[in-house]
Design brief:
CATH topology of the largest domain: Rossmann fold
Shape: elongated
Strand order of the largest sheet: 2-1-3-4-5-6-14-7-13-12-8-9
Distance between the termini: 28 Å
Number of strands: 14
């Protein structure tokens, strides 16, 4: 693998040193330069043409957002990740609208920066998990045609917090939701949604919320451990259409949370899991849906193979890790 050349721009020397240590722990990544302010970041990006720029927002002389715009013009092949203490959603949107592909909050850097770099280098967007629940523009500044996001989580509380926000946002907006989860997660999620003031029983009765057991649903799409894509697309398409019929507005939108891929991966069937992710993208292109997938890193025996992890990330519009 060729060396990835990185420029770090931040006005605090101690912080630059910490970032450098995190990045250079990866043998194929090399920090080739550092900049103390926005103007210097632009100058060094133009001169060195780095593969990646890790950029703070609150830089002296010229802020990071303006610097990013100039860097995109002078070194268009350089990918940009913002690393900032600012977690205001409007600031994040402005930062990503420059063409940057990543935004990491400094409070999450030790846990997420290496993952963010890996994801962005593969052409995907990464936004800090602490910013999850907000909708951000894609790297072109236009709204993504669909959201197919993935959360790698370390414990069930993290997952349930994220999924509760995701499903509650859909239902409170007057949209519909489909949950394909394990029994324990499904039951806990429905309880949490009630505490958010949602009449989830009524939503289920109306068909606005469809709750399915992932372990029961999965065998319907498998034949001798091989996924049947036609059955999968037909079944999920029918559920989406059924949920969409409950809309009285001018455009039907459905939020989907699913754990079938995680179950497949936990069973050692990584190829089927990745095929389901690909089919999820087909569904998102056909229907007006947002999809959130969840993978428990802790419960996967022996951890997750890096190649499989990268292939899963490649099928998603955004990646979160908590």
């Amino acid at each position: 693998m060729s060396t990835i050349r990185i420029l770090i721009a931040d006005d605090y020397a101690d912080w630059r040193s910490q970032v450098r240590s995190l990045l250079q722990a990866q043998p194929e990544w090399q920090v080739i330069a550092e900049a103390l302010d926005g103007s210097e970041a632009i100058q060094k990006a133009e001169e060195l043409k780095p593969d990646l720029v890790v950029l703070d927002i609150g830089l002296p002389k010229l802020n990071g957002i303006e610097a990013a715009r100039r860097i995109r013009q002078l070194s268009p092949s350089s990918k940009i990740i913002f690393l900032s203490q600012n977690n205001d959603p409007d600031v994040v949107r402005a930062a990503l609208s420059t063409g940057a592909q990543g935004y990491v909050c400094k409070t999450d850097a030790r846990r997420e920066l290496v993952l963010a770099v890996d994801v962005v280098l593969r052409g995907k967007q990464f936004v800090s998990s602490s910013l999850e629940g907000n909708e951000f523009t894609d790297s072109s500044g236009e709204k993504s045609p669909h959201r197919h996001e993935v959360l790698f989580y370390s414990d069930d509380t993290v997952l349930l917090d994220s999924v509760t926000r995701f499903i509650a946002a859909a239902l409170k907006a007057g949209n519909a939701a489909i949950v394909v989860a394990t029994e324990s997660h499904r039951d806990s999620l429905l309880l949490r949604l009630r505490t958010h003031g949602l009449d989830i029983g009524a939503a289920i009765e109306q068909g606005r919320c469809i709750a399915l057991d992932a372990a029961d649903a999965l065998p319907k799409f498998m034949l001798r451990d091989v996924l049947d894509p036609v059955r999968f697309l037909q079944a999920l398409g029918n559920y989406i259409s059924k949920a969409a019929k409950t809309f009285r507005g001018k455009q039907a939108r459905v939020g989907i949370f699913g754990e079938m891929c995680h179950l497949l991966l936990a069973q050692g069937n990584a190829e089927a899991a990745i095929q389901v992710e690909k089919l999820g993208n087909q569904l998102a292109e056909t229907y007006d849906v947002d999809i959130l997938c969840g993978y428990s890193v802790r419960n996967l025996q022996g951890g997750m193979d890096s190649h499989i992890f990268q292939r899963i990330c490649a099928e998603h519009s955004a990646v979160y890790s908590r």
